[in-house]
Each structure stands twice: as structure tokens, then as C-alpha cells.
Design brief:
alpha+beta, two-stranded antiparallel ribbon, 15 helices
Amino acid sequence: LADEFYFAQDLLPSITTQQEQQTLRQAIKMLKTRPKTFDDCIEWGRKKYQKYFVNDVRQLMYTYPIDMKTKEGAPFWSLPKRPPTELLFQSSDELDCYFISAAACLRAKVFGIEIPQNARNKEIRELLGKQAEKVSVPNFKPSDEKAKQISSQVNKENENAQEIDVEGEGSVGNQPELEQMKKEFQKLLEEYMATLKEGQQVCYPEEFEKDNDENQHIDYIYAMANLRAKTYKLEHMEWINVKLKAGRIIPALATTTSCVAGLQTIELCKVIAGTEIEHLKNAFLSLAVPIMRLSEPGPPPVTKLLDNLKVTIWDRWVVKTQDSAATNITQVFETLLKTYGLKPRDVFYRSEPVYMENLMSIHGREAEKEETLKKPISDLLDLEEGEEYVDLTITFENPNKKDEILTNTPLVRVHIK
């Protein structure tokens, strides 16, 4: 998510699929609801509890009442379907406190907010639970629109159908709405980034790690899984058993990864040996079936940037000045404009913004803008000693359409030595 935020201005113009639009919608929601304190994280956790284990249950039972019959006249709620029962949040319930503590701490870490010391202690969990008990949650209102979505999903015979969003994020595919979303996201992102401290990111991804108990990953899975089981009157599972079961996913991932790595290595050896392209192979692998198919690779897709400028995903634009060590952004921009006829705009290094035209053009930041443009790139970035070049992601304005960013432009390799 952090990378998606930073490359937003490059991605926004190319959004076309429903999945991309949904990602944009979620990003807007994330920026709007971002927490500022740990208390906000507790409130978020309490509202999630209300949604998952109260409101969603009420909505499902509103859609399919307990006495509902199928078309054949049989009870709808018959095995294997079980009717859920809503839960009542109580700070005296250890499982409820587990959920609040883990959910609040994970959200805080994602947004770089300090969490309480010894947050996994029983006493701290109970304090967080008592604080969550004071949070005011919105009253449930049944939605006929959500009922139709749930009913439609249940009736689908295709098991691979995309899961619906029961929170109701609105429709996708509406072009005026999409343009409005793009503007809203860009405004929210610029406002938020302007408040960040030096070196601070928009958010920090949490990679799942089952062997570090202090990160509360297993705590969250333990609480979430058992609370869901509780709504369906299923057997409770102990914490250690949850940890063991979650860990069993790792071998399956490791097996697939090793196969993919082996296939990649074979093809790399062919490239090093200078093998003809007819002998290179694409591999389609599924260990579940199991099946593996090999095919000859096709040429890379070509993107037309201008009438006289075409690129592929393998292209890289190189900038090397007479004094590479002193190369600055202004020189890079001038070289790219002269060589390719494109006007550069924003500069990113990995997942971090280096120069953003909109932010630097704000009144009162003229001196900062000038300094950033003239400062050697090697001084702007946190580089390892001895690096001879850096690969930058630079966005370019479309010369034929005002305020539009070109997509699929190559990385720019700038020599700094």
C-alpha cells in the first residue's frame, strides 16, 4: 500500500479495470480514516468488532431470516449452513480484549504510531478493552442494497466469483465518478504528505511473521478466528493451536517458491549462454493439480509514447553528464527533455518521493524547490557507499494533453560516479 500511495500520480491516469478502481476507492478511505493517536486505533478496533460480529450478522439475518424457506420449501438455514448469532462486546471477556489490543496495535504500527509498552500483558489488554467499551458505535440500519448483493452472491454458481464488499463502496465504471475520485485522492495525498516528518512514510506494511509473538499477528488471528467461530457456535481453538495451523501455510509457499526459483535459474543460464530465443521457455505451473506447461515467450508489448517514440518494459533511459558526481535533478530534466522531447515532472527513488512538482510549487517553498533541483542527486538520496548509479522513477507530462501523465515510461538510470 505504501508503494501504491507514492506511485499514485503515475498510476492514476491508467486506471481502467474494476480492481484498480476499487483499490483507488480503498486508498481514499484509508487516507480519510487514518489515525492520529493510539486512541483512534482503539476506536477503530471497537468499530471493526461491531461491524464483523454484530452489524454484519444482523444484515445477514435481515437478508435471510431464521424462518426463511428455499424455493423447494426446505428451511434455508439447514446444514451445512449455520445461522450466526451476534456477539455483545464486554471488557470482561478475554477474547474481546485480545481482539481490541491486537487490532489497535497492528493499525498503529501500520501508520507509525507508538503503541503501549507490554501491550500483550493481560492487565494492559483489559485496560484497552475498558477504553474500547466507552466508544460510541453507530446504530445498525438494515440495507436493502446490501441484501441484494448478498442474495446475488449466494445465488452465483461460479465458485471463483469475486467476493462482494458488504460495506458498500459504491459502483465502479462510472467515468465522472472516477475522475472525481482521482482528484480527491490526489488532494488528500498531498495534504497528508505535507504533514509528514522527514523520513516518515504514509504507512508501513506489516509482513506476517508467526514466530515473533510480540508483533501480535497470531494474537489477531486467534481473536478474529475464535470470535467468528463463536458467532457460529463452533469449538474454541487454543492460541498455540492457532499458531501451529497458521504456520502450516509456510511449507506450501516455500515449495512453490523453490520451483519458481529453479525454473527462473534454468532460463537465466540459457540467457548467459546466449541460447537462441526459440529455446527459451515460459512456464505455467500448478502444484495443486499438479501440472506444468512450457511455451515459447512472445515479444514484449510496445507502448507508443509519441509518434516517434516507442518503448517496452525492458527499456531503460540512461543519463550521464560530464561531472556525474555533481549531477542534479535540473540536469536530468534538461537531458530527458532534449533527448526524448518529454517534460519530466515528479521523481521517486524506490518507494520514496524525491521531488514532487505540485508540492514544491506551493507558495513559500520557492527556496526549498530551488535547493532540491540544484543539489547533487547523491546528496538527496540515502545510498550505499560505492554505488555508481541510481534507478529513478520519473513521471512525464503528456505534451498532447494538458495535466495528463504518460504511463509505462521506462526507469531512468542516472550515473553518479
